[in-house]
Amino acid sequence: MHEPESEYAFDKDLTNRLSHFKGPAPNFFGKWSIGHFSFFLVVFMGLLWLLANVPNRFFNPSVMHITVALGTLGLWRFGWWFTHAVRARIYANFKWPGMRSRADALWADGWRPRRLHIQMTTYFEEPAITKRVIGSVLGQIRREKIPTTIYIGTGSSYDELIIRQFVETYAQDIPDDLASLVFIRQNQPGKRMAIGLVLRAICRSMPHPDDLVIFMDGDALFGDDVLRKTLPMFAEDPELQALTTDEEVIVYGPKWIANWLDMRFAQRRLAMQSHALSNRVLTLTGRMSVFRGEHVLTEAFIRNIEADHLDHWLWGRFRFLSGDDKSSWYRLLSLNCKMTYVPDATVYTIEVIKENGLGRMVQNFRRWSGNMLRNGARAIALGPRAMPFFIWWCLVDQRLAMWTMMVSPVMAVLGTIIAPGYFWNCVIWVLFSRCVLSLFLFGYARRADMSWPFILYLNQIINASVKIYMIFHLSKQKWSNRGNQSSGGGSGWRETVRNSFAKFQLVTATGAFLVALMAYVGLIDLPFL
């Protein structure tokens, strides 16, 4: 569904959508609608029929070596996935309950942060969304009586006027000494500069190192009790430096995009809990994360946000356009800071998709994958001694997975050349395996959706393809938000040479990948072997 035309209609529709998230998620069997359960039975029975009637070519002697390679790779990938699932359960059932009970006890005893600083950036946001976001923050400040300053980085008077009028109406009963509002109009383009200006304004207020700082986006709507559930975690653990929360997504756009993002957030919940078991996370999500002021209110941290860059042998020095959440994460990771994930505090991300859905999907992958690749290499370079080994290996695995993911579809096609029909055996296996993975993911969602097995594989293939492209084009950045920014697309002979050499690298690497697989399959002979 696309966004309603009027602000009133938008607000009414948003209220209706938010009502679906009220209360705890249903149990596993309660997540199934009759339609999805019926479709699952049809798919499952269809797979059983195919297994019984399609000739099994996996054990054909001419392709047995391919089956062994795919089976070994499958055991590795699914074993790694299963490891995350087990770790997530351990975190949810054993580690997290104690953390929550201790934090709740501190809150009940009257603990509150000395002062809370909220850093929020907004840029020509939908008025209905802006008002909802500000209202959700002020409502919790009013209820919990937390001394708070809200710093809002803006690019024009458009957002400021909407927020000021709303606050003057909605927050008349909130005393100035409890909550105050500060606008920071950025004088340089880009979200990073807006965040830097806000952080400098916070520093001018002479904050205490134990003051808490929230980083949030202008389209991140607080769920119930987000402040109560997140802030006492820092009192419960004096070593904790940062945390991030659960997210749900509300999409105004194509239905399949909403399903895809629902699946992505289910994957996120599983992975975040697995990572948090090692007292680290792999990203401090920009939608909403909380930091202890000790490290983030320093010149080094602020400059890292404003001017984070990479020195690359081909692209030279280039600044990062988006990915401020990855920059803040890397900075704290390099300082060996403790981080965690709060699974019962939810922030609602409101996505308004006006452009082509598939194009937006690929663009998001380019942004996410580019941020991951640009920061992953230097995080790996810190070494396993700078962080728990499991977290370090997760970073390594991210770079391996983009190639291993492409092995199975390529070898399925190549195997069909040797044993016609081998491809269809692989398709059956892909459908079956993604159905099993989706059953696990349904445990981290509010509802079961049988489009996930198909979207999951599409997600993996597109993501891996984009990563392979991006690893050779790290300077290429595009962000449709905040003024449709882009970088790395300059002209001139130097850029032409760089782009040509990057394409040469891409073609050479993918060519070598295909040649190696063709040689293993037995379709070609390498002269030096």
UniProtKB/TrEMBL annotation:
Keyword Glycosyltransferase found: yes
Domain of life: Bacteria
A molecular function (GO) term: hyaluronan synthase activity
The protein, known as: Glycosyltransferase Alg8
Transmembrane segments: 32-51, 63-82, 451-472, 504-524
InterPro entries: Nucleotide-diphossugar_trans
Any one GO biological process: extracellular matrix assembly
SUPFAM superfamilies for this protein: Nucleotide-diphospho-sugar transferases
Pfam families associated with the record: Glyco_tranf_2_3 (PF13641)
Organism: Shimia isoporae
GO CC field: plasma membrane
Compartments, record wording: Cell membrane
Primary location: membrane
UniProt keyword annotations, A-Z: Cell membrane, Glycosyltransferase, Membrane, Transferase, Transmembrane, Transmembrane helix
